[in-house]
Amino acid sequence: MPESSASYRGSPHTDSRREAQFFHEHRVYSLQLEINQACPQGCLYCYASCSDPPEKELGTPVIRRLLEEAVDLGIPAIDWLGGDPLLRSGWEDLMEYAAGLGLVNNIWTSGMPLLDKDTSRDAVRLTGGGFISVHLDSLDPALYRMLHAGRADAKIGAILTGVENALESGKNPDEMLNCITFTRPLAGKDVAKTMQYFQERGIRTCLTQLSPAGSAMDHPEWIPTHSQIREACAARDRLNYPGSTGSIGPMDVNKFYCRGIVCVTVDGDVTPCSVIRKGFGNVHARSLGEVIRDHRDPLLFLGLSTGDTDCRGCPDEPLCWGCRATAYYATGELLAKDPCCWRQNKGGEV
């Protein structure tokens, strides 16, 4: 099934056809910038958590230089990450600068800063043509409290109100996402209920698999089974993409998004994905273009383009190649089999 005929988009980026074109041309579609570490969510499984981080923010001059380099490299979009990028002082100026360069802004936020209506209006205005993703794992305070630090009721309420503020400020619900990190406590009815809640408002779910990195290493009991992952992904497909003939399997986004990004972490390392904390060069030492040129193969997973992979022959292969982050943390290899894929791990468990 060619991706052009698939009703399954599976990517937050709004121009999915152009993104697929970049995929086939082995080009970077979006630069992820991890601009700070501050975050109100308190996720007890956070992949980027660090008790004593070497850097708490990526410097403003570095960010502005990277935005200019992105334009020079023909990269059309920026994915703003943290922490929570909306907690960084001067985030509006940075996104204004990016928009002035012709770049599309996309925001991955906890959702809590959107509780402030001015912040919500600015976020909507600055993501014209782009998306806003929030992060709410569960509507159940007891389950949320298990997975996050702090006051569950207040945090859930802030995120839900923030979403409504963004919609009232004019954000198209099709340009919003809710990100769920799928853990064993959410398996079954709870994860389906949360996805249903957002789908009723026209908002899709980014269903992210738990990677054993950062704080998640302290909670191996939260890793779901293959049957639980399969059930959750089936619910996502049914709710978000009814009538689709394809699936992204255990991935949170399709492979066009996955290859189309490179990430600059808060300390300047260039990685293939924000979850994969393996750097290939650092922007404090070299230009972004030089790093991408010299490490294009691992950054863009080009080894998965040969057709001679574990995914060959899978009916979902046109859209999916398994989560590279879960594969990396399970094996140490970026191109390895995804341990969360129930198709390739029949009869086993994660």
Q: Can you give a write-up of this model?
A:
The chain is an alpha/beta fold and 350 residues long. It is 33% helix and 11% strand. The chain has twelve helices and eight strands. An eight-stranded mixed sheet has the order 6-5-4-3-2-1-7-8. Strand 3, helix 4 and strand 4 form a beta-alpha-beta unit. Helix 7 packs parallel to helix 8. It is globular. The two termini are 28 Å apart. The N terminus is likely disordered.
Low-confidence parts, pLDDT < 50 over ≥5 residues?
1-5
- Radius of gyration, rounded? 19 Å
Give the strand order, joined by hyphens, for the main sheet. Answer: 6-5-4-3-2-1-7-8
Structural class: alpha/beta
